[in-house]
Design brief:
Elements (H helix, E strand, L loop, with lengths): L2 H14 L7 E7 L3 H14 L2 E7 L11 H7 L4 E6 L7 H8 L3 E6 L3 H7 L4 H15 L4 E5 L5 E5 L6 E3 L9 E3 L4 E4 L7 E6 L2 E2 L3 E2 L4 E6 L2 E6 L2 H13 L6 E7 L10 H4 L5 E7 L13 E7 L2 E4 L2 E5 L2 E2 L5
Parallel strand pairs: 1-2, 1-3, 3-4, 4-8
Antiparallel strand pairs: 5-6, 5-18, 6-10, 7-9, 9-15, 10-13, 11-12, 13-14, 15-16, 16-17, 18-19, 19-20
């Protein structure tokens, strides 16, 4: 028995998801996450009226739909938690369950180490930092990211909803990652231009041995270079068609406990980094519907909200955690 994992499972369900005695819980997992799924299931049986554990075949890419019977089952419970190898966050199954009031916590790529460490963070600190960035983003028309390694991209965001992910989903229909800690939004389709140098990790690949240089033209990743890993990313994108290359998301990590590990669930939450994703952005108020959503991590960024420099080399200006 892994006591630390079991304690983290209780925190995830009781504190983050707000699971109540009268509620029903569904855990959707796959063959790669058995230990975590079982731990959550055992915790759920103690915390709520009924805990149901189902295992699906692991998906090939982030954003690929679960089997239809599982999608239907997700609509019939109060809380769904998804420890899986690939993300179910940006799926119709998750969106339809949320519309009906189901609270959904997705845990793509979760590891025992990440779960134990990040779920024991002080969530009041994460909430305060997340709220600070949301406040700074209010009314911003354009975001620019620059790094010494070559990133220089401008992403118009005027009118787009700002989405705080604090890792606490206690109200009807709320959804997000577990663990969490980020602020994100969907840039306007077809408007982003510049260069992104992904130097941390890339969803579907992991930690990078060579930075990925991505040229973005009118909202699409047109040219990708960076050796063997660039070829792998190109192959992943091409599996899902043209819209998999669309700039889908800009996000800032706000979890001070998160570390860069090669697992995008944790990496995109690392305080002092930003991430840019390509593919599906329907869940963020965008219009790109494709069965792929791949995030890339940029470290030590300078970040401008309109003309205001709010982060310099990964240090948030005027804020101490």
């Amino acid at each position: 028995m892994n006591t630390e994992l079991n304690n983290a499972s209780v925190i995830a369900l009781r504190d983050c998801m707000g699971l109540q005695k009268h509620e029903t819980l569904l855990i959707v997992s796959d063959e790669t996450k058995k230990e975590i799924a079982l731990s959550l299931h055992e915790a759920g049986k103690e915390l709520c009226r009924e805990s149901i554990l189902v295992e699906i075949k692991s998906r090939e890419i982030n954003g690929q739909e679960p089997p239809k019977p599982i999608a239907e089952l997700m609509k019939l419970v109060d809380v769904v938690v998804c420890p899986t190898s690939k993300s179910l966050t940006h799926t119709d199954a998750r969106r339809e369950a949320s519309k009906l009031g189901v609270r959904v916590g997705t845990m793509p790529g979760i590891t025992v180490d990440c779960m134990v460490r990040c779920l024991n963070a002080d969530y009041e600190k994460i909430i305060a930092l997340t709220d600070h960035i949301v406040h700074k983003l209010a009314g911003v028309q354009s975001i620019r990211v620059v790094t010494e390694k070559g990133t220089d991209i401008t992403m118009p965001v005027g009118g787009r909803v700002i989405l705080p992910s604090k890792g606490v989903m206690r109200n009807k229909g709320e959804s997000g990652n577990l663990p969490s800690g980020e602020v994100y939004m969907a840039p306007l389709e077809g408007k982003s231009n510049g260069i992104v140098v992904i130097d941390g990790s890339m969803a579907g690949i992991g930690m990078l041995s060579t930075p990925l240089r991505i040229e973005v033209v009118n909202g699409y990743a047109e040219n990708i270079s960076g050796g063997e890993e660039a070829a792998r990313l190109t192959s992943l994108l091409d599996k899902s068609g043209r819209d998999a290359r669309a700039v889908a998301e800009f996000g800032i990590g706000t979890n001070y406990k998160a570390q860069l590990t090669g697992m995008i669930l944790e990496d995109e939450k690392v305080f002092g980094t930003i991430h840019i994703a390509f593919g599906n952005n329907i869940s963020m108020g965008g219009s790109i519907s494709v069965n792929s959503h791949l995030d890339g991590l940029v470290t030590e960024p300078d970040v401008y909200f309109d003309e205001l420099l709010i982060m310099q080399k990964g240090k948030l200006i005027g804020y101490e955690i």
